[in-house]
Structures are given as structure tokens and as C-alpha cells.
Amino acid sequence: QVQLVESGGGLVQAENSLRLSCAASGRTFATYVMGWFRQAPGKEREFVAAISMSGAGRKYIDSLKDRFTISRDNAKNTVFLQMNGLKPEDTAVYYCAAKLGNSDWLYRVSVPESYAYWGQGTQVTVSS
User: Fold this and answer.
1) How far apart are CA 128 and CA 74, in angstroms?
2) Could you tell me if 120 and 5 are in contact, meaning their C-beta atoms sit under 8 angstroms apart?
3) I want to staple 98 with a disulfide (CB 3.0 to 4.6 A). Which of 10, 14, 32, 83 is the partner?
4) Exposure string (b/e) for 5-31, b if CB count within 10 Å is 16 or more?
5) Can you say how many angstroms the Cα of residue 21 is from the centroid of all Cα atoms in its chain?
């Protein structure tokens, strides 16, 4: 079992930055692929980014890769999402998720149903 707790959300003005954190329980954090998703009101949950077990590999949705950066600290059981140049359309609840990794860590990495563990979400609101 893995428990995930997100933090770092809030209300910011457009063009500002936020750094989300997701703290994981357990001693096997480094065996999990970690992902960030977001869900805006009335919309489906959307893949944002994912990172491989070691942190060497990263995958982003194309529309966000120039502004968002995913990273992880396996010694602290934490994954981060640095968000720069925020826009009102980035307003959403942001969730971190975990799934056991393997040599093909990219397989279905953007599919929410492939993740076994989810945090409760943190609200990000960007004002214009």
C-alpha cells in the first residue's frame, strides 16, 4: 500500500509559479512510477506528467512540457511538479498517482486507470 499526500496548491495570479509536492508513505517509493494528473470542473481527468522510478525518464503532455517540470527525491519519498507561467486554464485539482514500475515504464503512463494509488488532490486556481 502507498499513501500519497499532495500539498502546495493555492490561488495565484497568471504568469506566477507554484511548486506542488506529493509525499508518499512506505519504503518502496523508488519502485513506483509517479504521475501528475489534473481535473478541471466539468472535464475529464487529464495527464500532466510522469517520471520513471529512478527519475531519469520524464514524460509530459505536449501542451505543458515547456512550462511544467516533474522531479522526484527518492530519499525523501517525494515527487514534485514545478509549474511556471501559470495561466487561468491551468486551474484544476491536481492529483499525484503511483503505479509499480518495470522496464517499460512508459507503457500506459498517461492512462489514469493504470495507476493503483492516488492522493486526495490539491486545488490550483490561477486568476487573470
Assistant:
1) 36
2) yes
3) 32
4) ebebbeebeeeeebebbbbbeeeebee
5) 8
Sequence length of the chain is 128
Q: Cell numbers 499532495 label which residue?
A: 6
Residues in CB range of 83: below 8 A, 6 or more apart: 17, 18, 19, 20, 67, 68, 90, 124
Helices marked H in the chain: none
Q: Are 91 and 104 in contact (CB under 8 A)?
A: no
Per-residue pLDDT of 79-103, as tens digits, reads 999 999 999 999 999 999 999 998 8
